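User: Okay, second chain of the day. Same drill as before: sequence in, structure tokens out.
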Amino acid sequence: MFLSLRAEVEDALDGALSTLGFPTDDLGLEEPPDDVDSVLASSVAFRLAGEAGAAPPQVADQIAAEIDAEQLTHVSDVETQGPYLNFLPSDAYLAATLEEATDDSYGTLPDREESVVVEHTSANPTGPVHVGRARNPIIGDAVANVLAFAGYDVDRHYYVNDAGRQMAVFTWAYETFDEEDLENAPERDRIEYDLVRYYRKGNAFLENAPEADVEAAEAEIESIMRGLEAGDDEAYERVSEVVDQVLGGMTECLARLPAKFDEFVKETRFMRNGATEALVDRLQDLDEAVYEEDAWQLELEDHGIDKNLVFLRSDGTSLYVTRDLAHHEWKFDEYDRAVTVLGEDHKLQARQLRTTLELLGNDTDQLQQVLYSYVNLPEGKMSTRRGTGVDLDDLLDEAIDRARGEVEDRLDDRIRDDDLDEADIERIAHQVGIGAVRYDIVSKQPTKAITFEWDRALDFEAQSAPYVQYVHARCCGILEEAGIDPETGMDDVETAVDADRLETPEERDLLETIARFPAVVDEAADDLEPHQVATYTREFADRFNGFYRECPVLADDVDPAVREARLALVAASKHTVANALSILGVAAPRSM
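Assistant: Same drill. Structure tokens below.
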């Protein structure tokens, strides 16, 4: 509903400025501070003061006088406060918000008829998912979610690096060594934990074995790489036997977050279909192409990039970036927009990729790259090379264990009389624990480095996932006590709800906050910043808790009409917070 109000205000301001002979290119719209009653404000008088030859407050008065609020639907009045114009919400605006928000799809925007592919995670299939890279699937999944909520047709892709040296080494090691050659048992009973031992054994062998043995191994590894480059079916099947098994296990881990994918796109696809070879020919024809240091490269210094992009080795084999260029051109053909989530260590490669795509004649406006810093644990950064780091599975297990302890400690303080059995406690522990991990990571701006801390993530009282999840559980409890199914909300209630009965500041503040949710979705999708939704959920939780403290819903002395209006407000709150959490990939527990 806020989007409708904003559009109405934009039209009214545009008309007033045009009448006064002022330019309309910048309306100066912004959200007012919390202590101002309006839902939208304009600072346009600041910009126009010089042109008008008057002080900003006088200009604001002139503009306000040209706007007839009686002709507006969602705005009840336009007030000036110094140089600002404040737009106050109408009763019709609040009533429409309450009606819309009691629908369980509240917050979803109309179909934009635009397709977007979101590529994220894309970790090399060499072993278990490492916690240091957990930010990629969490941010990537949330970006895909918010785009889908905003009306885009979204596909989620995992780009599989199955053609590089790492996979050739892995394949050779898997075929060379036996179980008895491996030093340790698998850390978990899942395939990637089993097979990663071969990869580690292979790397150790290449570093420590006698020179002749290493040369023989390197020859076989080189043979695998050449076979892939040539599109040889046997080489592809050998590597795929390893890749597909490891990827299957990694996918099980990612599903715990959850992060799911519509398609796993292998880089060998663009070697086997000839796209990489054709791309190399086009790259060699560019003015920037040079053959230096036994490799074909692009000199990109004239484009602001100091480091050359190497795209073909002297032996005629391509590199990861070469295949990725073909991959991106395929995405451009298949989708209207392409979004890629990348770690900060790929910033240079991201610039090289975009510049090269432009040199090849592509319109890179359709390419957007979301860069993020890595997640650290308090112990410091961790490495995947020798298996000394912390796996994502370990983090999620500990999150569930810690959440279970928090839930059990709070059992005696619960207000609701629904008895929780062991299955309920386990379910809530999973929802709260994994939700805490996701929320703590996705709620920060991606470019800021973060250190994950348990006390903050699982704090039920602070602005964390449990704090927001508890609001949803509280909404469900109120609705259930009133005999209303939380999933359907007010759909089964025949009594007409009178939104005018919501008169207290706490009720109106909550309703105005609910009204902003679709606009938050719209802006977060435009900016590819799902952390904006997390920020909104904290504000929403504060508003709901203020309402809960001051406005009893089911007390005996509450007027029946007020009771129905407040129940509708609770149902609207339930749908709002559930959908906001779903964008973040955080479960919305029915009870806690």
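Confidence is low (pLDDT under 50) at residues 380-388.

User: Thanks, on to the next one.
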